[in-house]
Specification:
Blueprint: H1 3-25, H2 28-31, H3 42-61, H4 73-77, H5 90-99, H6 102-122, H7 134-143, H8 152-158, H9 163-188
């Protein structure tokens, strides 16, 4: 088994089962709803997962162009933000909930998913060993707008990470963490899955 087969065993289930269920069973109005003032919506989390995966794999792992920057996704999403949502206050979360085009969000998520499959299909184990240099981290976070604010601690968070760590964290660990969060939110909203 190679790295792409190993990765895809968990990644395919993420999109084809877990995330597909949220798109299938959660009505649009409930996608935008926050069940508590200090909790994000499912729509915000789906956007956040997609932004982290898009930038995380395209910029940190392959140094390619983000899906967001192709096919007019930013405009289609109807959102002004390039960052990944970390550090947004709840008024901004509410603004995203009101503005985001849910059909475009689903399309963007699917486009990111397809790009990730392409990326993973080309990876060799040796290509995942290099450490991403602080200058590249800084360029991605601040020059390309992936981080919300320009703080040195943002660079420190990723200093010493290998391309493999970015792949596994942003492609698997991070979205699965949020799948659990969306499950709790769904329960609070009274959503039942088939």
């Amino acid at each position: 088994m190679d790295i792409s087969q190993l990765f895809l065993q968990r990644y395919t289930v993420l999109y084809d089962f877990w995330l597909a269920d949220f798109w299938s069973y959660v009505p649009p109005a409930l996608m935008r709803q926050r069940p508590h003032p200090r909790v994000n919506s499912i729509a915000w989390i789906l956007w956040h997962i997609s932004r982290v995966e898009d930038a995380g794999l395209n910029l940190f792992v392959t140094d390619a162009v983000q899906v967001l920057d192709e096919d007019g996704w930013q405009k289609r999403l109807n959102l002004p933000w390039r960052h990944n949502g970390n550090g947004m206050d709840f008024s901004e979360v509410e603004e995203l909930n009101r503005q985001v085009d849910l059909d475009a969000l689903r399309g963007y998520s699917n486009a990111v998913h397809q790009r990730t499959i392409q990326i993973v299909g080309t990876l060799e184990m040796e290509s995942l060993s290099p450490v991403v240099l602080p200058e590249q981290v800084r360029r991605i976070l601040f020059d390309q707008g992936w981080a919300r604010t320009d703080t040195p601690s943002s660079v420190d968070n990723y200093t010493g990470w290998t391309k493999g760590k970015f792949l596994l964290n942003f492609g698997l660990t991070h979205p699965y963490q949020h799948v659990g969060e969306m499950g709790v939110i769904s329960s609070l909203l009274g959503i039942e899955f088939g």
